[in-house]
Fold these 4 entries.
Entry 1:
Amino acid sequence: MKRKWEVIIGMVGIVFCVIFLGGFSLTMTSMDEETYKETVFPILQDGVSLGAVQDSLEAMKVLSIWFGITLLLVLIFVATATAFIWRNCYPKWAAVLYLVAGLSTLIGTQFIAFPIAFLFFLAGALCLFRKGASLNKKGDAYVSNSY
């Protein structure tokens, strides 16, 4: 594996996605109305949630489902990108998939998780612009300095 930094940065992004997006999604979808009313609803009273408790709970559950779907898409994109970059076979395809994972993180979280998306954009940029080792006809690895 010659592209270990790209893989590491992508995996760190996945870990953050699972912790934050998955944690929020799991917490909000399993929360009942009474617990929501006691814990989350008072925090949202300052101009965010002006409706009834039930309407606010439904909106938060829809948001958590949206985060869960985003997490699944990002997992698929990053796993596929990691498979493409594993033996330094298709770095341009991996870059496209990392960039799509970053965009879907931004759009799926409504630009809330931009620090996580930055990690995917960084991994995609490294795939595109970082020179990797090439294999010559004998199978030996060498780094080319020419374009």
Entry 2:
Amino acid sequence: MKDPMLDGPGKAGGPLEAGGPLQAMSPGVVDFLFRQLVNGEPPEDVHWRREGTLLVEQPPGPELARRLSETDLDALTPTELFDYVRAAQRLGAWADKLREAAVERYCSGRSL
């Protein structure tokens, strides 16, 4: 059976076809992964983990909101993008709880 990935870029089933694996990655991610491959390093950035709290460990709140807003999504690997989405979901749930508490307080007639 012929492997469609071996047909080359732009051919039916090739890596650059819409939805192909290379189409899903930004040029920055492809460049990073290539440099990792050339250097014999793992396909993810492990150096930044030593610099502070991981995004997946950052508690929801203003600091997480700041970090998410300053993140360049095009520079993230697929694993990092997944972590980003999960962190954004945690932040959204936290913000929803704040909103619900404020609405409850407003509707109860208690002063703010």
Entry 3:
Amino acid sequence: MQITLQLGNTGEDIDVDLPAVPRIGEQILWADEVTDDHGTYERLREYRVEMVDWTLSRTNSPFVMVRLAYMRDNSGPPAADASS
């Protein structure tokens, strides 16, 4: 099912395809790749489902917006370069 996730800490909307709509109170882990001064690393952030909005239409498939409350960043610091 096509779902739009709204990340609470950035306000960013992300379209994803999930097998089911998350329920209020459930935890979602979001992994993405970021690049900063230390290089590229995988970031892992934890969210909690705060709100689920459905928009139903007779002609189109339902639109589902899931608002996520930011909990914490579980990534840890990027690995130090072994050559230094």
Entry 4:
Amino acid sequence: MLFIFRKKKPGTITNTLTLSSNDIVGGAGIINRLSIKSWKISDLLDLMLSVSDNTATNALLNYYNINTINDYLQQNFQNISLSRFLMKKK
């Protein structure tokens, strides 16, 4: 979320992402239990932060590019890095 707002991309939170069945992963969260496939980025952010939704987190990492986010983290928070997406579809 910090990346989005610091990199001047807050306008993108009204964009909608459509998730395929391949995007849905297990673990914490609720997206994997619902039939809803289209989500506003703002809703994905809320789910990522409030219920640690792995699918929401992965969708955001994919949309904003995990490598770009990791570069931002390395420039601003050297002790934090992203190595992978959260859970993978089996």
